[in-house]
Amino acid sequence: MNTNKHIAILGAGESGVGAAYLAQQQGYDVFVSDFGAIAGHYKKQLQDWGIRFEEQQHTEAEILKAVEVIKSPGIPDTAPVIKKIKESGIPVISEIEFAGRYTDAKIVGITGSNGKTTTTSLTYFILKNAGLNVGLAGNIGKSFAYQVATEKFDWYVLELSSFMLDDMFSFKADIGVLLNITPDHLDRYDYKMDNYTASKLRITQNQTADDVFIYCADDAETTKGMQGNTYKAQLLPFSIEKQITPGAYLDNDNIVINTTQEHFTMSINDLALQGKHNIYNSMASGIVAKVLELRSDTLRDSLATFKNIEHRLEFVGKISGISFINDSKATNVNSTWYALESMTSDVVLILGGVDKGNDYNMLKDLIKQKVKAIVCLGKDNQRLHEAFEDDVDIIVNTSSAATAAQTAYHLATKGDTVLLSPACASFDLFKNYEDRGDQFKAAVKEL
């Protein structure tokens, strides 16, 4: 027990409140501090559990008493309170790092700039279908710490952001998956791609020869970042450009997975998730399944029947022959590129929000090919106008999901697709990307 040991938790969202519960269970004296307002349901949980907390301030004297600080992934190292904590020599860790100390479960850790929520959900779906006692956590669902405190799973599938990985030190993924690395959150990494790449590759830290690292051999930043490094884990790459053994590759229209088990093959036309990016996602999940020696018929059935997560290329409905798709989770340019790449009709594209220093050049060719009009949804749309005014005939500004949906509907004709895939964060007009997606779906239903 850790009686009389103080632990401070910064941020009272899902991860912070879950960490607080686990820390209390482990005998710590817990103090939760949130610089903003705490959501009502989280506040009630803390009150019900008798955990001390504060909101809309950080009482430094209380925080600096801690033997360790668990911080929300959203708090940057440049925050004044974090600087003071580190100057005081107090370790700062993530909720994932903390929770990992108190479970013997095996871990599948999945990271990447794009596709990690889909791949994490798909991998969990496959493992659960195969009868494994498995939990789903990380950037998705109930916090890892809360589940460690309240459940007894043999396996966890964790979606891990770079922000989480930055504050993980002793934690180890038994199976680590890195989907891709594209520019995102560079404001947190001194605008240096090498720093961001190094953060993503922390998924491999502490791995041994008994572990597995699955990665995309077609991803330039990943392969560049891996050069010169040695990896103790078994490497299982996947590619749609070349044949790879062991690993996964594309043979005509068939995915081939070859680990220590027999070959697994499946036509990409039978996958529940369509589009080039989802071939990669399905390959990554499929390799995990074969590493665990799951039955091929179970894997095939799971890959064919999986339903995608909310807010990721989610079909909302069809009105007057116009399809509406909610891809609000596309908070960076690369996600929007993947969404456009999978479109087979003319598109009215809804873009915009908080620009994180985006480079829109990679979208230009697809926008010229597929997009007939752009509806901007944000407080400041100037950079979108500058980027695309020569590529489409119509760019209009809106400042609410309802107006954006109505405007896009009027600009579209029968057979077109209205695609909300913003390429930007949502915090200028919405609470988060879920709120943006929910408001868009509600607006479509009102049309």
What does this structure look like?
The protein has 447 residues and is an alpha/beta fold. The chain folds into 3 domains: 6-93, NAD(P)-binding Rossmann-like Domain (Rossmann fold, 3-Layer(aba) Sandwich), CATH 3.40.50; 98-305, UDP-N-acetylmuramoyl-L-alanine:D-glutamate ligase (3-Layer(aba) Sandwich); 314-446, Protein-Tyrosine Phosphatase, Chain A, CATH 3.90.190. The chain is built from 17 helices and 20 strands. It has helices at 14-25, 40-49, 60-63, 80-87, 95-100, 116-129, 144-150, 162-166, 193-200, 220-226, 276-291, 296-305, 333-341, 364-370, 382-388, 401-411, 433-446; strands spanning 6-10, 29-34, 52-55, 68-71, 92-93, 106-111, 134-138, 155-159, 175-178, 212-216, 234-238, 247-251, 254-258, 264-267, 314-319, 322-326, 347-351, 371-377, 394-398, 417-420. Strands 7-8-6-9-10-11 form a 6-stranded parallel beta sheet, covered by helices on one side. The chain has a 6-stranded mixed beta sheet with strand order 15-16-20-17-18-19, sandwiched between helices. The mean pLDDT is 93.
